[in-house]
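PT: before anyone asks, these are the final sequences, not the draft ones from last week. 270 residues across everything. Please model them as a single complex and drop the result in this thread when it's through.
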Amino acid sequence: MSLTIGKLAAAVSVNIDTVRYYERKQLLMPQSRTASGYRVYSQDSVKRLRFVRKAQGLGFSLQEIKELLDLSQMPEKDCGDVRARAQSKIIEIEDKVADLQAMLEALSKLAEYCPGEGRPLEECSILKHFYEGNG
Amino acid sequence: MSLTIGKLAAAVSVNIDTVRYYERKQLLMPQSRTASGYRVYSQDSVKRLRFVRKAQGLGFSLQEIKELLDLSQMPEKDCGDVRARAQSKIIEIEDKVADLQAMLEALSKLAEYCPGEGRPLEECSILKHFYEGNG
DNA sequence: CTTGACCCTAGACTAGGCTCTAGGGTTTAT
DNA sequence: ATAAACCCTAGAGCCTAGTCTAGGGTCAAG
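LR: through. Structure below.
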């Protein structure tokens, strides 16, 4: 039920060096080492590694993922902690979407007014529509 | 109405070296230089610099931001070209929005089923999702 | 018992985006 | 007039998230 690093990497379709990198970053430690120094991983590592990749796909940084993983290992913690992190990531992403939509609007206007019917371009500049003000 | 590099940087809460870096990257050129070589910026640079920071937060690379900024600066003769570029940026951004919305949906679903405060981590749908299954 | 596939380490390298250092000139306030 | 605060350049160094290389050890099959 244990794996070498190569098998683990293949099982999750991750570069073998990436697995070693995650170890340096304390995200995924091998269960043990063989006498000759080979890393030995448990089946649990497959789950953990998948966790990392999934969470990355949802926009979490390795540091944030480490925190989530550490959290999941603390028996005294509850779902509220995890949920709060998910919640704040949701807000982060929602903000981005809103900003992107503002940018879309600016660009649409730019494209709309563009066909050169005497409209000065400055009237629909991206800067002007997307960002005039203070943030 | 003109600013030194230090004032500009302070106005947008950006490191002064970052402003110089953006100049090397052709994103933000000073209006002129004083006789002694000091950069002179216009009020417009503040907007432009803010735009850069905002767009970065949305996941655009400096190269992409340069392209966006160049769009709003293009002379009218290139109108067809401007329109085409705007159009392709629109598609890029729409893709980005779609990606973020997929993330949002996944995260929201996870958070929704998470029992939250006071419940043990074993019941956390978020961790469970990351840990289990095969994706 | 050797060949090939696999593993090890340290460290270099990448790209993008800064941030800092060294060494020096300029401006402003006292 | 001098010190603090500000500016200049070139170039080095740092972060994230890997990826790759060199030089070597180990393991399984024929």
